[in-house]
Amino acid sequence: MDLLSNLAQGFQIGLLPINLLYCFIGVLLGTLIGVLPGIGPSATIALLLPTTFRISPVSAIIMLAGIYYGAQYGGSTTSILVNIPGEAASVVTCLDGYQMARKGRAGPALGISAFGSFIGGSLSVVGLMVLAVPLSTMALQFGFPEYFAIMCLGLSIVSYLGRGSFFKSLLMAAVGVSISFVGMDVVVGKPRFDFGLMVLSDGVGLIPLLMGLYGIAEVFSNLEPKDQRVEVFQTEIRGLLPTVQDWKDSIGAILRGSVFGFLLGILPGGGAVVASFLSYAVERKISRHPEKLGTGVIEGVAAPETANNSATGGAFIPLFVLGIPSNVAMAMLLGALMIHGLQPGPLLIRDHPEVFWGTVASMYIGNIMLLVLNLPLIGLWVKLLKVPYKILFPLILLFCMIGAFSMNNNPADMLVMLFFGVVGYLLRKYEYELAPLVLAFILGPQMEQAFRQSLIMSDGSLTVFFARPISATAMALAGFLLISAFIPALKRK
Amino acid sequence: MERFDWKISFIWMALGVGQCIESWRIGLGSVSEPAMGFMPFVLGMVIIGLSAVLLAESSLAMKKTSGRGIRLWAGVNWKGIAWVTVLLLGYSLFLSRLGFLLATFFLMVFLLRTSGPLKWWVTLLIALLTSVLTYGVFGVWLSVPFPRGLLSF
After folding, report:
1. Per-residue pLDDT for B1 more than 50?
2. CA–CA gap between residue A359 and residue A316 (Å, rounded)
3. pLDDT computed for residue B74 by the predictor
4. Following DSSP, what letter does each residue of A224-252 receive, concatenated?
5. Is-contact A78 A37, C-beta < 8 A?
6. Which of A109, A329, A411, A475 has the most CB atoms at less than 10 Å from its CB?
7. Taking the CB of residue A11, how many other CB atoms lie within 10 A of it?
8. Between B151 and A310, residue with greater pLDDT
9. Segments making up each domain of chain B, as ranges
């Protein structure tokens, strides 16, 4: 009963006209940037974070969350029609989606993608709603050693699941934590690593760092000459509603994708990308005709598109329950909560139920909005693919500059952002992952506090991290990942 | 083809050493009572260790392919990045003097001219609309106190 009354309270908040408006803006922008290749949800959340400073925390989170899950809907459009994924999580949709479009079945591909996304997204919200409260009650028992161990494990998994070298990713995590040391010390409140610069005396701002690494650096990367012309597949998009046979072929994939997506979304570094690839791999494994996957079969579209949306709901669990983000977009939501004076973690649901339940209810509403936006308006989204980047990139840069300035109304923050823009570009160029850096930067102060407090309470004994089952398991898993990354490197020698 | 970024490993190592030295200077405390330099020192050591691993990896890769690989700075669009950086730097420095509307208008004109061939009237129209609309949204609606500068509003 508690669950239903809380949900009813959430809907009261989510259905307020102002929150409906922010939810709509969020999912609309999410779909938009999902459709447009070259700008992702992380960059967009970074760009829009400053616009939320002056609105209520619930509205802010509703809008930013809408961008995140909305982008997963939009990403499939370009995969199916252009064979270019709008988002990394839609890469695998290209395999069957584009082939379906070539066979004149772009409509059912887009349709099942939207319905699968809706079902996966909605089921994952149910999972979030059911699991978050009991898990947060359990998390209240955690002490500093557990938090430190879980954060170490989270960063190790994010580094391990990264696309490139594990050691480069781990180095990025170490650099991210190190950047968080700039400014006031979290325990004694004295300045450190600020080099006497006023702009660094309060530490490196989250907004300049995010906008630099994701906004400016992304534009710099896109300034590189690329031999890639976007050509929308010339076909009439008809029959968006899948047939009974289409449903029969894809319902299993949709349900499996929902479960895999949700569970992988919870894992740090898992998220939508891994979920989409894994669910596609599972479909190939269990299919009675695996050779047909990749030639334009509908379950090849349904599975990854459902999974990547389902992962978005799962990703909220570690954020709301532990205050530990599982991916960069969640890290930005964590930043948004902190900017509004809220501390994500087990106490958030108890002390600020309106934020949690309002967000949950808005996700149900947002998924319905997305279904409406994605089916009838598909023609509009296709037209948007033709907006030239030469007009988009000056606008992105301007939003970055305004965002950095509006944090403290200080032009010096724009210089900090510019610095991270150049650094972020060079890091991308040399195949360093930015996600571990951002996650580590955001978790840095909590990690340091947990580490120091653990050592103080154990009188300097490092065994404190192995004394209780949860911290011991997390540390052992992190150690296992480290060793398993070293073994192939040693074998290569 | 693998990119041999061993020079970057040296930069990381130098940063790690610098972090350790500065952490030492501000005070490490002890394991039972860690001071504010303690964890930065540990992280500095981690950075040094990881950069050594990366250095070893890239050196081995260099040996295997007899030093052939992509040069460190090959393929970077220095000209484009430098120009955009200068424009954004100029914007940061002149925003207070020129004010938001003028500075944004000029920034957009320069950026749009950089981005490719656009008719002058289209460039000026987009620049004008962008500066006015962003001022309306951020300055008026969201009450961001932009510098007024020359136009005094």
Report:
1. no
2. 10
3. 65
4. S----------------SPPHHHHHHHHH
5. yes
6. A109
7. 17
8. A310
9. 6-64, 78-151
Residue A345, token pair as written in the block: 């973690």
| Nearest-angstrom CA–CA distance, B112 and B127 | 8
Q: What share of chain B is helix, strand, coil (3-state, %, to 5)?
A: 70, 5, 25
Rounded Cα gap, residues A166 and A168, in angstroms = 5
Interface of B with A in 125-144 (CB under 8 A): 126, 130, 134, 137-138, 142-144
Number of domains in chain A: 1
Tokens 């660094």 sit at which residue? Answer: A200
Tokens of A259: 């479960």
Q: A186 in helix, strand or coil?
A: coil
How high does pLDDT run on average in chain B?
85
CB A35 within 8 A of CB A78: yes
Amino acid at A242: P
Which ranges of A36-105 does DSSP label H, i.e. alpha helix?
41-48, 57-82, 93-102
User: Model-level pTM?
Assistant: 0.79
Place of tokens 């309106």: A354
Say whether A409 and B22 touch across the interface (CB within 8 A): no
Domain ranges, residue A477: 2-492
User: Cβ distance A430 to B3 under 8 Å?
Assistant: yes
3-state helix, strand, coil in chain A (%, to 5): 75, 0, 25
**Chain A neighbors of B88, CB-CB under 8 A:** 216, 397, 401, 414, 418, 421
pLDDT of B71? 59
Question: In which residue are the tokens 């106490």 written?
Answer: A347
Quick one: tokens of A96? 């069957």
A181: contact with B, CB 8 A cutoff: yes
Distance CA(A448)–CA(A54), nearest Å, equals: 30
Half-sphere exposure of A314 (CA within 13 A, CB side): 27
Residues of chain A with pLDDT under 50: 227, 229
How far from the centroid of its chain's Cα atoms is residue A116's Cα?
A: 19
Nearest 10 degrees: Cα torsion B65, B1, A163, A116:
-150
